[in-house]
Amino acid sequence: VQLQASGGGLVQAGGSLRLSCAASGIIFRSNVMGWYRQAPGQQRELVASITSSGSTNYADSVKGRFTISRDNAKNTVYLQMNSLKTEDTAAYYCNVKSYGLGYAEYWGQGTLVTVSS
After folding, report:
1. Residue 11 in contact with residue 90, Cβ under 8 Å?
2. Strand runs labelled E in 13-110
3. Torsion of CA 77, 83, 13, 86, to 10 degrees
4. Coil, strand, or helix at residue 92?
5. What is the pLDDT of residue 100?
6. In a 10 Å sphere around its CB, with 0-12 CB exposed, 13-18 middle and 19+ buried, how is residue 36 labelled?
7. If pLDDT is split at 50, 70 and 90, which confidence band does 22 have?
8. Which H or E run contains 116?
């Protein structure tokens, strides 16, 4: 399984960005797709996740500003980020946890989001 993330960039505070992550390869129907981020000198943290049935989970710091969604037909997960803050600056990584024949976890390459003041 390969994950290809895109959509990062430079944006002013208050602006918006949309991240996409397309998964290729065999992914079992029971899975959780998500986005993590890692700022310089900090640990990687969960931003948002969404199950194959559409249940979502968000970090408190992004609730009300970020929206995660997925297109199961395309094996793609999206992260719409609105009202961006400078503290959202980080490398964002997509992640898939697959619960098919055993557990497997996959990571995409990071896409950099920089929010300027």
Report:
1. no
2. 17-24, 31-38, 45-51, 56-58, 66-71, 76-81, 90-100, 102-107
3. -70
4. strand
5. 77
6. buried
7. very high
8. strand 111-116
